TrEMBL record:
GO terms for biological process: cell wall organization; peptidoglycan biosynthetic process; proteolysis; regulation of cell shape. The keyword 4Fe-4S does not apply. It comes from Bacillus spizizenii (strain DSM 15029 / JCM 12233 / NBRC 101239 / NRRL B-23049 / TU-B-10) (Bacillus subtilis subsp. spizizenii). It catalyses: [GlcNAc-(1->4)-Mur2Ac(oyl-L-Ala-gamma-D-Glu-L-Lys-D-Ala-D-Ala)](n)-di-trans,octa-cis-undecaprenyl diphosphate + beta-D-GlcNAc-(1->4)-Mur2Ac(oyl-L-Ala-gamma-D-Glu-L-Lys-D-Ala-D-Ala)-di-trans,octa-cis-undecaprenyl diphosphate = [GlcNAc-(1->4)-Mur2Ac(oyl-L-Ala-gamma-D-Glu-L-Lys-D-Ala-D-Ala)](n+1)-di-trans,octa-cis-undecaprenyl diphosphate + di-trans,octa-cis-undecaprenyl diphosphate + H(+); Preferential cleavage: (Ac)2-L-Lys-D-Ala-|-D-Ala. Also transpeptidation of peptidyl-alanyl moieties that are N-acyl substituents of D-alanine. InterPro entries: Beta-lactam/transpept-like (IPR012338), FN3_dom (IPR003961), FN3_sf (IPR036116), Glyco_trans_51 (IPR001264), Glycosyltr_51/Transpeptidase (IPR050396), Ig-like_fold (IPR013783), Lysozyme-like_dom_sf (IPR023346), PBP_transglycosylase (IPR036950). In the N-terminal section; belongs to the glycosyltransferase 51 family. Residues 1-29, 773-913 are annotated as: Disordered. This is Penicillin-binding protein, 1A family, putative. Residues 793-809 have a biased composition (Acidic residues). CDD domains: FN3. GO terms for molecular function: penicillin binding; peptidoglycan glycosyltransferase activity; serine-type D-Ala-D-Ala carboxypeptidase activity. Keywords: Carboxypeptidase, Cell shape, Cell wall biogenesis/degradation, Glycosyltransferase, Hydrolase, Multifunctional enzyme, Peptidoglycan synthesis, Protease, Transferase. Pfam families: Transgly, Transpeptidase. Residues 708-795 form the Fibronectin type-III domain.
Length: 913
């Protein structure tokens, strides 16, 4: 047993000694782990290859076949209006098929150098091309080369949908390889050159050569012409040599440089071609290009094609699409009638551009491309780049300041002499100043100085950011303070399309929808692509509502009254731009002549922007007369009246509160219980900023009634032929006594603290009128009376007669020596109090809008009155907006020149607070 134990112990020790050390054991495990990892990665790689191959096979299993009809015969697209009704077929009749043998080498080389330099070397796809495209875009300019081969483009445009998915890309690669196996390079190039989209009226190289150069024999195309055509497919509209020759020339020169790089042309050929301006290379004239088209919606359809080109990678002329647009044919027909008819006041040479869109969605319902414009001509609705005049004020001035500073519609702004930051004076058309006025009144009457001050208060950067959020696309470095009143400079300008888009956000609770012409497109395989832009919040709902409410005032009582539509809630703004002094002299511009006249307005349903100006005309006329400046407002009113049923309203959001304030208070104070009705204004404030202090301006009225001058008494002394005038007054005051004899003018006979005046040498039978005014620190109090001196025969009956204002009034009403109190006046009322922002309370309740003085004159003509400056007409210097004001009479001194019709004692109290 012991031996056994010993032997076992020995064996354990022996085994222990022979076991490897932990260190050595770890090393062996590490080596095994590496092998296992390597083996695992190898397995994963194999599985990945197999899996990728299986996935690839699955993805291409349902790829379309190489249908020669689809490859060589393009399909036209069908266009539908907003209700799904077909309005046009697009593409089928606008191509001329040419074989590869008819296409000269210079054309082939121009397209190959631009689109696929290794076309004759690759087998359908070109990894080198993809990398080279990235480099070329940096060295030769963006868009110098594309990543897809010509073969891939043929497959993509002929056989596949345009959904950007991995499956579609895999099928594109597969089919490109198959196409190369089944067709020659020349056959593929022929397919490509006959499918390219150049313009709505030109598909394929054959039709394009005829469209832009009048060339039907392609062998006659020059190097410059071939390069111009080869540069167009990347952006057919932008590089159209007729419409955009400068951009087309820059693009052509890039193509020429690529041709030189590939060895297709020599240095001398390159330099010679580059020196030729596009306009000198045989491009057809604008007049020849603007051909007649049978489709009356052609201008709208061109914008549809342009939008599809910009938003998607499809070819409407070849891909057999169903294109669903936003066109409202009823609205378009009405707009065409207004633009080309004689109902709105168009004169010879005038032009106009109009965009009508849905306020809530941004869908363009109709466009007025111009008056009697040919198809393919300049589109005044979308291509105009005009100065906006005062239509910019809600966008660049008042909108930003409400959004960021939370100004109320009552915010008081000083309309007084002012300059830009550079010291240059800023003025309005009337060269007058209205003093402290509300923001509502300033916008409605299109005053310039308050607009600049609002712009300065919020700051240029913030204002520009706000405007760009509404689609204006301004560059901050270009923007000066003159932009605040519409004085755009340089290349900046706006179109009716941009302005309609911007204003629609005010009517849509601050949500901006980019104007668009296309809802969606459907491919021939049934798949759809939604092209509707995403909505974005451009401002707070309080900003949108308060701007809208002020623009309603502009239409009701301001500069836009001619744009009113019965039964429809309309908000809007006028805008007019003028000529500078040099232009006035150079072109002999008549007084009041304008360069541009705008009206931009909206309802809960529709938004419309209307621009009018002078187009090319034989008479060389360049300015709009005062009457012609009304056309924009008339177009708006008649168009909206036809399409808008008046439903819907602009609802006040919870972020806005209403408050009745006392006019003239600054800062704003709530109207008090004694505030006169004509001194009350109902205005809007951002929630949390409304005034809480009640005005005490009119609190003294009741207290001071007891302090008025009273007891005015006349006593006749027959013996001395004199009158003694006496009165009562509580407190210290100076008394000015005036006298009038037999209806003559008043003259002051005494000014002292005495409460009695003696008039000597009076004439029997004469009528004496007296006016006594007490002047104290608390104000003025006036009493008046008259007295007829008895004639000689009546001396005994009337001797020592004296009367007071408190005696026998009922019995003596018919006697000439009876006296009564006159009506009270208030010296504290000034002209400006009565003109600035005055509104009728009853009207305010009916309109639910806060208006400034109602305008009883033609809104397009200045109101020629001679009131105080604060009663002046209001018109914008920058835009020439004419507007009128009310004739308010001052409340002061109303009784001083009044002919007395009563002889009983009268008293009037005047208070100055």
């Amino acid at each position: 047993m012991s031996d056994q134990f010993n032997s076992r112990e020995a064996r354990r020790k022996a085994n222990s000694k022979s076991s490897p050390s932990p260190k050595k054991g770890k090393k062996r495990k590490k080596g095994g782990l590496f092998k296992k990892t390597l083996f695992t990665l190898l397995i994963l790689f194999v599985l990945g290859v197999v899996g990728g191959a299986v996935t690839f096979a699955v993805m291409v299993s349902d790829a379309p076949s190489l249908d020669e009809n689809k490859l060589k015969t393009p399909y036209s697209s069908t266009i539908y209006d907003k209700n799904g009704k077909e309005i046009a077929e697009y593409g089928s009749e606008k191509r001329t098929y040419v074989s590869i043998d008819e296409i000269p080498d210079v054309v082939k080389e121009a397209f190959i150098a631009t689109e696929d330099a290794r076309f004759y070397e690759h087998h359908g796809i070109d990894p080198v091309r993809i990398g080279g495209a990235l480099v070329a875009n940096f060295t030769d300019g963006f868009g110098a080369e594309g990543g897809s081969t010509i073969t891939q483009q043929v497959v993509k445009n002929s056989l596949l949908s345009h959904q950007k998915t991995l499956k579609r890309k895999v099928q594109e690669v597969w089919l490109s390889i198959q196409l190369e196996r089944n067709y020659s390079k020349d056959e593929i190039l022929e397919m490509y050159l006959n499918r390219i989209y150049f313009s709505p009226r030109a598909y394929g190289i054959g039709k394009a050569a005829e469209e832009f150069f009048g060339v039907t024999d392609l062998s006659k195309l020059t190097v410059e012409q071939a390069a111009t055509l080869a540069g167009m497919p990347q952006s057919p509209t932008a590089y159209n040599p007729v419409k955009n020759p400068d951009k087309a020339e820059k693009r052509r020169n890039i193509v020429l440089s690529l041709m030189k790089k590939q060895g297709f042309i020599s240095d001398s050929e390159y330099n010679k071609a580059k020196k030729v301006a596009v306009k000198d290379e045989g491009v057809v004239s604008q007049k020849e290009y603007e051909k007649t088209n049978s489709n009356k919606y052609s201008a709208f359809i061109e914008e549809v094609m342009k939008e599809i080109e910009e938003k998607s990678d499809v070819n409407p002329g070849t891909d057999g699409l169903k294109i669903y647009t936003t066109l409202d044919t009823k609205a378009q027909d009405k707009l065409d009638e207004l633009m080309n008819g004689d109902t709105v006041g168009f004169t010879e040479g005038m032009q106009g551009g109009v965009t009508l869109l849905d306020t809530k969605t941004g869908e363009v319902s109709a466009i007025g491309a111009g008056r009697n414009q040919p198809v393919g001509g300049f589109n005044y609705a979308t291509q105009t780049e005009a100065q906006p005049g005062s239509t910019i004020k809600p966008i660049l001035d008042y909108g930003p300041v409400i959004e960021n500073k939370k100004w109320s519609t009552y915010e008081q702004i000083d309309d007084s002499a002012y300059t830009y930051s550079n010291g240059k004076p800023i003025r309005d058309w009337d060269r007058k100043y209205l003093g402290s006025i509300s923001m509502r009144y300033a916008l409605a009457q299109s005053r310039n100085i308050p607009a600049l001050k609002a712009f300065q208060a919020v700051g240029k950067d913030t204002a520009v950011d706000f405007a760009n959020g509404l689609g204006l696309g301004l560059t901050k470095d270009n923007v000066s303070e003159a932009y605040s009143i519409g004085g755009f400079g340089g290349d900046d300008g706006v179109s009716p399309l941009k302005m309609a888009g911007a204003y629609s956000a005010f009517g849509n609770n601050g949500t901006y929808n980019a104007p668009h012409f296309v809802k969606s497109i459907e491919f021939n395989d049934g798949t759809k692509l939604d092209l509707t832009p995403k909505s974005k919040s451009a401002m707070s709902d309080y900003t949108a509502f308060m701007i809208t409410d002020m623009l309603k005032t502009a239409v009701k009582t301001g500069t836009g009254q001619l744009a009113q539509v019965p039964g429809v809630e309309v908000a809007g703004k006028t805008g007019t731009t003028n000529f500078d002094e040099n232009e006035v002299q150079r072109y002999n511009i008549a007084s009041g002549g304008a360069r541009d006249s705008w009206f931009v307005g909206y309802t809960p349903q529709y938004t419309a922007a209307v621009w009018t100006g002078m187009g090319e005309n034989e008479a060389g006329k360049k300015s709009l007369s005062a009457e012609e400046q009304k056309v924009a407002k008339r177009i708006f009113a008649q168009l909206i009246a036809d399409v808008d049923d008046g439903s819907g309203s602009f609802e006040k959001p919870d972020s806005v509160v209403e408050a009745t304030v006392e006019k003239g208070s600054n800062p704003a104070k709530l109207a008090g219980p004694n505030t006169p009705s004509d001194k009350k204004l109902t205005e809007y404030f951002v929630k949390g900023t409304a005034p809480s202090t009640v005005s005490k301006t009119y609190e003294k009225e009741e207290k001071e009634e007891t302090e008025k001058l009273s007891g005015l008494n006349v006593k006749y002394d027959k013996d001395n032929q004199s009158l003694t005038l006496s009165w009562n007054y509580d407190g210290d005051a100076t008394f000015a006594v005036k006298q009038s004899v037999d209806g003559g003018s008043y003259s002051e006979i005494q000014n002292s603290s005495a409460k009695e005046a003696v008039i000597s040498g009076v004439q029997p039978g004469s009528v004496y009128k007296f006016e006594v005014t007490a002047v104290s620190d608390d104000g003025k109090s006036t009493a008046s009376t008259s007295y007829e001196v008895p004639k000689a025969e009546d001396d005994e009956d009337k001797e020592d007669q004296q009367q007071t204002d408190d005696e026998n009034k009922d019995d003596e009403k018919t006697q000439d020596d009876t006296q009564t109190d006159d009506s009270q006046t208030d010296d504290s009322q000034t002209d400006k109090d009565k003109t600035d922002d005055s509104t009728n309370d009853q009207d305010k309740k009916q309109d639910n809008t806060n208006t400034n003085p109602p305008d009883n004159n033609n809104q397009d003509q200045p109101n020629n009155n001679n009131n105080n400056n604060n009663n002046s007409n209001n018109q914008d210097t920058s835009d020439g907006d004419t507007n009128s004001d009310t004739n308010d009479s001052s409340g002061s001194d109303t009784n001083k020149n009044k002919t007395e019709t009563q002889t009983n004692l009268s008293s009037t109290t005047e208070k100055t607070n």
